[in-house]
Amino acid sequence: MFKLIVKNLWQRRRQNAWLFAELIIVTVLTWIIVDPTVVGLYDLNAPLGYDADRIVRVSVATYPEEAEQYDSLVVTDEAYEALRAKADRLPEVEAVSYLSMGIDDNSSINNGLETGNEAVDTVVGAIYGYNIVPGEKFFTLYGIEPTEGSPSAETLDSGILGERDLIITESVDKAFWPDRRGLKDKRFIAYTKDGDTTWRNVIAIVKDFRFHAATRTGAVSMGKYNYPLEKEYIDLTLRLADGVDAEDYVRDYTDAITKELQIGNYYVSDIITQRQQISKIETTSGAASRRNLHFFVAALFLVNLIIGVVGCVWLQTGKRVQEIGVLRSYGARRRNIVRMLIGESAVLATAAFIIGDLIYLQYALKEGLSDGVENNAYYIPAETWITDFGEHFAIISAIVYAIILICAVIGTYFPARHVSRIEPVDALRDE
Fold first, then answer.
1. Is 236's pLDDT higher than 70?
2. Which CA distances in Å does 291 have to 48, 213, 294?
């Protein structure tokens, strides 16, 4: 069968030339569209590294002095402590924390920390930085897990982080110490505001986490928060009990929480889930619109691709009625004719894909593949298939090949089935 397919393709090489050229061009165009789309889908659905589904954010503000509700006799510190105590008693809440910086807020406070070992002169990208409030339940609340050999999440939340200590993620550890695991003798040179340097010791390593779907880097360092807590505007982060749906909780308990946390000059200004906060950030930053544009263009392209390729293959197959009539007159079975025609299209599509894939490879080697995240080239990237050129190219190539092959097979099957059912006498009537 394969020899017959190759023979037929060679005999019909002139008739198939335009279709072959079209499939090569389509392969390159499919690569251009599919690569950023698949990367975007991966970023959208990949784990965040923390338990976003059980997190609810409650924003608390204070009435200004000119407001009618303002009470000048209220002592802010006492009202704050009462607020925290009531928040701890909210229904279905497992833990409450005040965080100076939410997990989606980030700043690059460590632009190229230098290691304190033999790579002291090496600067490896930039690192996201968090300031952790001592005694707050950052790790247990978000479900961020320490690596083996590091203190537990509960221990890290107990306030052991000192002035010159750092907690880093696995990506930071691998970037600076790729061949050495563990915590022993790991420290950084950090720069002060005055331009001086100081040593900062690594006391724990936690698993990578990312802020939202628009970021992929897992490189994060965490240091002690050394400034007075802002008590005028407070973000309380609630970790819900296991099995409680965050969206249902916000819908059912917003009124009760707003009433319960109305203390002194404090009032609840907003209650949203962590997932809603993620969507808000991605919308504000433009990441969501860029991703949606890729998805829309990809969907539109695939529809036109299927129609175009299927139409061309259908037309080519439909012109072979007389040839099929000859084969039927010699006793060829219908299913064998369908298999032969589909096989021809599959071989033609495969050859065109290989050439188109090699053409795109030359472009990819020069310009690179889609990284999907704007900061990925600047910040230390988390190690995924996206950052590995060979694996990335192979995965997207497989997807592109599947799309081209499916279009070719669909375009061949239905007309092949139709012409295979024509009686030899009818097919050869005009011969």
1. yes
2. 17, 10, 5
Would you tell me the crossing angle of helices 287-318 and 389-420 to the nearest 10 degrees?
40
CB atoms within 10 A of CB 61: 14
**Residue 312 pLDDT greater than 90, yes or no:** no
Q: Which residues of 190-207 are buried (b: 16+ CB within 10 A; e: fewer)?
A: beeeeeeeeebebbbbbe
**pLDDT of 106:** 47
Instruction: Answer whether 338's CB lies under 8 Å from 413's CB.
Output: yes
Question: In one letter, which amino acid is 186?
Answer: K
The predicted model gives 70-83 an average pLDDT of 80
The average pLDDT across 324-338 equals: 64
pLDDT digits (tens, 9 = 90+) for 366-403: 888 888 765 555 567 677 888 889 999 999 999 999 99
Taking the CA atoms of 280, 281, 286 and 291 in sequence, report the sign of the dihedral they define: negative
Q: Name, in order, each residue with C-beta under 8 angstroms of 377's C-beta and a sequence gap of 6 or more.
A: 371
Give the other-Cβ count within 10 Å of 128's Cβ.
23
Beta bridge partners of 98: 236
Q: Please report the sign of the dihedral spanned by the C-alpha atoms of residue 174, residue 178, residue 179, residue 184.
A: negative
Q: Is 167 left (phi over 0), alpha (psi -120 to 50) or beta?
A: beta
Nearest to 206 by CA among 149, 162, 147: 147
36's CB contacts (< 8 A; 6+ apart) are: 294, 370, 372
CB atoms within 10 A of CB 224: 17
Q: Please state whether the predicted TM-score (pTM) of the whole model is above 0.85.
A: no
φ, ψ at 48 (rounded to 5°) = -80, -20
* Lowest-pLDDT choice from 166-175, 352-361, 397-406: 166-175
The alpha carbon torsion through 358, 364, 366, 371 (nearest 10 deg) reads: -170
Q: Going by C-beta distance under 8 Å and a sequence separation of 6 or more, which residues neighbour residue 252?
A: none
- Residues 6 or more apart whose Cβ sits within 8 Å of residue 137: 95, 96, 97, 157, 239
385: helix, coil or strand? coil
- Hey, what's the torsion of the CAs at 188, 193, 197, 202, to 10 degrees? -20
Residue count of the chain: 431
Determine phi and psi for 227, rounding to 5 degrees: -115, 160
Give residue-wise pLDDT tens across range 283-311: 877 777 777 887 888 888 878 777 777 77
Instruction: Report yes or no: 236 and 87 within 8 Å, Cβ to Cβ.
Output: yes
Percentage, residues of the chain above pLDDT 70? 77
